[in-house]
Amino acid sequence: MSRSVSAIVATTTTLIVAVGLTVGLVAAGCRGPQRNLDLEAQADHQSPAAVGPVTEASSANRADTEEHESNEEPQEEIGADLFIPLTKDTYEDLVLNVGKPVVIVFGARKNKCGQCDKLKERIVRVADEYRDEVSFLMVDGNREKELTTKFKATKSPTVCILSRGHEVGRWQGLKTEDELRKLFDRLVGKRRETEGGT
What pLDDT is attached to residue 52? Predict the structure, then answer.
């Protein structure tokens, strides 16, 4: 009888220990992930503070860049000593009341239109021998919408040639320096013929 009771007690003790171990393991397993979640939550909670200085530094860098760009001196336009800026307010004086043909280049400011820059550079290189007999004008197509519409200069660069207020020629895009010389020679030659016949 005592042996049976001892066996029962031993078996019961073993079960209690086993149950206790199982409960402990389960509890430990639950606490493990919970701790991981707590760490992740803490990391998420702390991340804004960690990101904050980087964001502020980035904003400071952008501000420095914008300030540097705003402090940059405006670049001198190509052919600034050759091309006279033409606006709707100066149109009558520079086009209608001038006693020589005018070459009007419709384009954009420096570094805004690659072909415009190239064309102006080529005109500048050949224009010295014609500047006394031809007036070279420049229209900023982005600002002078009224003139751009008047001459239907929808693409940049567009060049219009006027004589005595009447359009006598136009083209779009680039021309070589040789083509420009031939064109200006004809323009100057026609003017000389007209003046000689009057």
Answer: 42
